[in-house]
Amino acid sequence: MITADVTHRFGGFTLDVSFESSGPVVGVFGRSGSGKSTLLSAIAGVVRSPVARVNVDGVTLADRPGGVWLPPDKRGLALVTQDPLLFPHLTTRGNLTYAPGADAALTSDRGRQIVDVLRLEPLLDRNAAVLSGGEQQRVALGRALLSEPRMLLLDEPVSALDGELAREVLALLLEAKTTLGVPMLFVTHRASELLALADDCLVLDDGKLVAQGPPIDVLSRPRDVGVAKLVGVDNLLRLRVVEHDERAGITHLDLGAGLRLASPFCAAPVDTLVDIGVYAEDVILCRRAPDATSARNTLAATVTSLDAIDREVLVGLELGATPIRVRVTAGAVAELDLRLGEPLVALIKTTACHHLSERR
Amino acid sequence: MTNAEIGVVLLSLRIAALVVVVSIVPGVLTGWLLARWRSPLRFVVQGVVMLPLVLPPIVTGYVLLEALGRQTWLGRAWHELTGTHLSYSTTACVVAAAVVGFPLLVESVRLAVLGVDERLEVVSRSLGRGRSSTFLRVTLPLALPGVLTGAVLAFARALGEYGATMVLAANVEGQTRQIPLAVAALLNKPGQDAAVTRLVVMSVALSFAALLGAAACSVWQRRRRGAR
Predict the structure, then answer these.
(1) For labelling alongside B196, which of A13, A104, A197, B55 has CA 20 to 30 A away?
(2) What is the ipTM of this complex?
């Protein structure tokens, strides 16, 4: 449980955010320059904001102006940044046992669990400076966890890493979340990380909190144009796996009302939920179904909304029981004579359905 | 080398070593402060600290004499405390050389601390280590090569100190007559060319060894940075 109320000014920028979240994993989402890293610094006590009220699990860490202001070392909020920032003059073990009490924590049951989850055993006696990027990030995470923090603060822990490494670190964070049950607050500009990791999501834009809620809701049904612009008007769908057709390379997902979406083959078991992203410009609208097409999805749809944005139109559709948005030109709307409530056919290539994460 | 000359060399080394001992802690703290303090006031402090580097040493010596002489408040306090007079003593040599060498030490530490990634200190704080613990466990070890470079430079500068020492400590055999003062004294006497040469060779050799030590420290520092 975290509550925070922070006002911070620098240059011409003002961060003014107030929120309450029961987490346990809170994602802070926004473009670069939206103030999300500043919010993290203010919560950590690294910057002294004129207004900073921070309370984690009932413990007041800051109450400015006027009251409490605990320095960063008294807050119990361990920072993990996109650079692992290991202490280069220490061994891996020296880094892991850096925090006061971490020596004892390392040999406790929980410490052994942390070492197991992060696969730190083979790294223990190596010099921190010679580890690979992924190994360094594992050690950084272990170092933070062994300080037994009230909450982990993660500043873009995955975003800066390249493909393979990013997946590895994200998987570790998921593992830390499920196995170790550590509350976290993390900053990201990637929707896929939010979906995979966060229970509650804060969207920041220009120093203000513009939305809060479960990530799938905030991202798939942005309530205002600001949030929509921020997350992109793409479709994020959480769908149930119906069956796999490994030979055809397809996994069928349930759209509701008897409709199925053919997505690329994935390993998620039948009846589990998967997150799928479909770009709004990757869907083709037709009056009638074509007689032969390479698109694996020819789906009956109903028009539920039409919103003009510049010279384009965002068409809201209902596919079975699943709402999606499609971006077309104003010319296409005129030629197809699209109206609310009319039946249509939507064509979606299987390869245009992107698996974002496999939920556990 | 005669016994007197050996005595001069040993006195020089003793003074230089004492300079490092007395100035290392204040030098490191001042260098750290100048690197990490955000206030514009730091430029004033930096100016005061660096002043002896650009002042004629004889002026520095004069200022020290005015501040620490027997009639001054500080001079009398020293007399109360130790029962001895500061001026014209080995201690005066140490004070003069320490003041003149201080900017070299401070600047070297300041640059080394500036080279330590501040984010490491932030992470250390977030892991529960306070300001001084973070300094001792992260900043100082990482800046150590720079600290050693500064100490070696201050040591070497002390070996070569003449002007400020001449004014504050005068040229007293066995007390304040280190290598530069001994050379100056010998130059005023006829027929001492061989003795002058021996001391000059010693001076060059010691200074060169000290500079090699400083160079080794900076190689170490660069290697450490590269390994990060």
Answers:
(1) B55
(2) 0.82
